[in-house]
Design brief:
mainly beta, DUF2793 domain-containing protein, Jelly Rolls
Length: 481
Amino acid sequence: MSDTPRLGLPLLAAGQAQKHVTHNDALMRLDALVHLVVASRTQTVPPASPAETSAYIVPAGGTGVFAGHQDELAIFEDGAWNFLPPRAGWQAWVTDEAEHHVWIGTQWRRSQPESSLGAALWGVNTAADTTNRLAVSADASLFNHAGTDHRLKLNKASASQTASLLFQDNWSGRAEIGLAGDDQFRIKVSPDGGNWTEALVIDRTTGLVTLPASTWAREIPRQNLLINGDFQINQRAFAGGALANGVYGYDRWKASGASSMTLAGDVLTLASGEIAQVVERAFWGLMSLASTTVTLSVEAPTQNLAVTVGSASGTIAAGAGRRSITLTTGAGDTGNITVKLARSGAGAVSFGRVRLEAGTGATPWQGRPEEGWLAARYCHVLRPGAAGVRLAAGQLIDTGELSVGIALPAPLRANNPNVAQSGLNRRVFSESPVTGVTGSAAHGAMLSLILSSAALSAGVSYTALLTTAGSGSYLAVEAEL
């Protein structure tokens, strides 16, 4: 045997001449291999002027004298390059990476000993890098408890950052779960890693679950807390134009300050002022709307739209399609809350189909078949439109008071509504005009009225009919907030 088995050091032969040459060669090899330091493991071209005992790990694609020596140690000795195949367990400090590596028999692998200070990079069966500082290549990974619980934590710097689990197919994203860009819990999927569809959102405050891409979610959206959001119910026959402060126009919508508006189809144009609607939280089964995340959305606002919900406010940016703003109501918004819409700048603003819903993200618009019933809870106008229509039968006593009961389409919000009439008559033997309303009360969907009219014979009660006098006749019952 002429070389040592581990480091390949030359041995002195018996009777060898010039033993110092062999001995010195072995010492130089020891000097290079013990506490091995290599300049690089990525340099494919040999250095032009290497220093004595300069060492490199030859990478794939080596050129010049490095060619054909991948993964071997190249050591410059006595003016020439010597190449040593590494043996399992050999270790080297790579200067240009400031990393410790070990040859495991098939590859040079980064090897950083564990310490109380932690490791900057750690690769298990693969190479870690400055982005993936912990990298694991394995069939499975186990994170076990140390006696009781075990929690895996993903922490991000702020709400606008991302903390998520990303599932990939051949390094291309297919699904992501977590907090992506805000603090709502989201699940999204992708067919190609570039186009993503949001499948589920869980509101961080309310726990409300929405399915933005689901057919079910489009067909049965979250409850709209506003009534007559498309302005199609118009029992007061408001023709558009000016409205004084607090006066109702289209059902459930009133002016907040002096306002002017017109309606074309389901698009409202607000020329001045603002419109408002009071949301009766108890009617929707809500204990309170205080400190609640809500989203208000409209269709295609032509300019920025100022929005107020309770004590919270913001702006919906102009643009095509459904546009929205998410707000959090104040802690003091415990009762009914007022929603207001106004122009954000000069000039008229047009928009349509207003929705207010709990949670984040606007769901698509959908009309409700019960919208008229909802509006009738606050206001109902009987406007028969033809002369001589019989509205009700009742008793006329000799004082001239006509007592009648009228069925309503929905139970009124309050039992003491405001009632107004115009062009109503009572008929016994002949028509006599009704001159006023002296009393009213609501009991569920039944309205009891006492109307003043002409008296008949003293001490006699008559069965009388309440009729309309013409196309302008009406009976208006109002229990607005």
